[in-house]
Amino acid sequence: MTETPLETKRPTAQSGEKAEAGQKAMTVLVVDDSPTSRMSVTRLLRDEGYRMMIAGDGEEALAMVRAERPDVVITDILMPLMDGYEFARRLRADPLVAQTPIIFHTAGYELEEAQSLADSCGISYVLSKPAQREELRQAIDAVLSETRAPLAPPEESFYRAHRRLLTDKLSEKVIQLEAALAESQKKEIRLQQTIEETIKAERALERSNKDLLHKHEEIQSFYHTVSHELKTPLTSAREFVSIVMDGLAGPLNETQREYLGIARESCNRLRVCINDLMDATRLETGKMTLELQSGSIATVVQKLVAVLGPVAKRKEITLTTRVEDLPDFPFDENRIMQVLVNLLNNALKFTPDGGQVTIAAGAARDYPDHVKVCVKDTGCGLANGDVERIFERLYQVPNENGGGSPGVGLGLYISRELVQCHGGKIWAESELGKGSTFCFVLPKHHPSEAIQVLIVDDEERTRDLMKRSLEREGFQVTTAENGAIALEKMKQRLPDIVITDLMMPKMDGAEMLKQIRESWSLLPVVILTGFPNNDQIKRAMEFSPFTLMAKPCPIAQLIPLILRLSGTKGLHK
């Protein structure tokens, strides 16, 4: 085939120079399916004074070349519909545009393959992405400087080379896809193994949880049974010791009286431990009841001093009281006396001989409409870690002074629960080596007045009975017949506590609990059910915490539970 001279299209301005007034700017068509790549090349060349055109694939570019006759075409190779090779072949096959200079602009890993077919398409320049401004300018100058027309590629040789390239590419992609598929299958197998292991772990955890719940119930039952079984013979032993000490069984010498005194004191300590075990069991099973009656905190403090004053005197500890003139308010005198005995006993135990303990009671300035009671000592004090854990069940602070005797670690835990049952709050302030102050606050008014209770049950009689009973105690009560209605009411006004049945139409208690935990994670929930082992309980366990009570539950047991669960929130209102 003979070569024919190329009618070169020269720009009126040299490459790299701005077109002056009256000169026609050179036109460059950029062909690329990547908008980012198109815009990058367009910005670089537009700043150099070129008139820019863009196309997204070979088909569109071929139409634009025939219509607009650009001076240069810069094209990508791998594009949809029509790739760069086919675009170049068709352009070269069209006599009207066959002489249009073309520059391949492709990814670096395709350069070797691009160059092999570029020659067949009459293309001399292949640039690696992303080309820089100077590279683009030099390539444009070079293709415009060519003096011979590019040859139309021989059909058979081009197609043969093109097919070989596409076949190689396809084979490479097949190998990559097979490798990716094999890796995906491995990952799927590992994922399936992980899922199976997770399911096994969840089942094992569920079994462990059931075992723990069963063991917990057994322990609580054991505490209760042992406490009762020990209390009767212990009471008999203590009474007979007292009879002997009173001389009813004959005269005693001083040594016998001393030994009997030690025996009676041991009985007293054992009785306190047994009572603590019974109270802890009642609190955890929701069986603790309060007898709220209007009374004077000053009277309780006087009784406290009368009981434990002799203990302070034996250790030469100065015991003082500071009690403001306070009006009577409703509280359970026996239970608050129990709290104060625990606090004062601890203060005397950890205060060295010759120290000082102060009991103060008055209006709580930080808690409006509350009474504040504090027991302050000059004892050994508590470390920060002990202050944080002091009210935990079974937690005991080591007595470095060696004074007193350790209990079972329930006294302060029970004190906290009893205060919360009253709708109050208890806390400790301490500095190691300087003493401690234990304080609690109690509401002056009936604690139920500020508590909003939502009852959810599909049985109308049950709802009405609980509503009337709780309103009679001063609670503000609303009701709902299923979980869906209850959630709507919660969105309108959030209660302090929710008491719900499990088996209900439309939305049962387990589903409602799930949605409560998603929206109000700390809202106290009490579940009343007559079927504690059914599937709904298992579902509900996934969205704990909640308190489970057997149905029907006596109101006398329910009220202290409500006060304890919602008491702290009541203080924040």
Q: How would you describe what is shown here?
A:
The chain has 573 residues and is α/β, with parallel strands linked by helices. It contains 16 helices and 17 strands. The strands form 4 sheets. A 5-stranded parallel beta sheet has the order 2-1-3-4-5, sandwiched between helices. Strands 7-9-10-12-11 form a 5-stranded mixed beta sheet. Strands 14-13-15-16-17 form a 5-stranded parallel beta sheet, with helices on both faces. Mean pLDDT is 80; it is low at 1-19 and 568-573.
Query: What is the strand content?
Result: 15-25%
Could you tell me the mean pLDDT?
A: 80
Number of strands: 17
- How large is the radius of gyration? 45 Å
Q: State the distance separating the first and last CA atoms.
A: 98 Å
Unreliable residue stretches = 1-19, 568-573
Short structural summary:
Helices cover 50% and strands 16% of the residues.
Outline the secondary-structure elements:
Blueprint: E1 27-31, H1 35-46, E2 51-55, H2 58-68, E3 72-75, H3 84-93, E4 102-106, H4 111-118, E5 125-128, H5 133-145, H6 155-245, H7 254-284, E6 293-295, H8 297-314, E7 318-323, E8 329-331, H9 333-350, E9 356-363, E10 370-377, H10 384-389, H11 411-421, E11 425-431, E12 435-443, E13 452-456, H12 460-472, E14 476-480, H13 483-492, E15 497-500, H14 509-519, E16 525-529, H15 535-541, E17 547-550, H16 555-571
Parallel strand pairs: 1-2, 1-3, 3-4, 4-5, 7-9, 13-14, 13-15, 15-16, 16-17
Antiparallel strand pairs: 6-8, 9-10, 10-12, 11-12
Helix pairs in contact: 2-3, 6-7, 7-11, 8-9, 9-11, 11-16, 13-14, 14-15
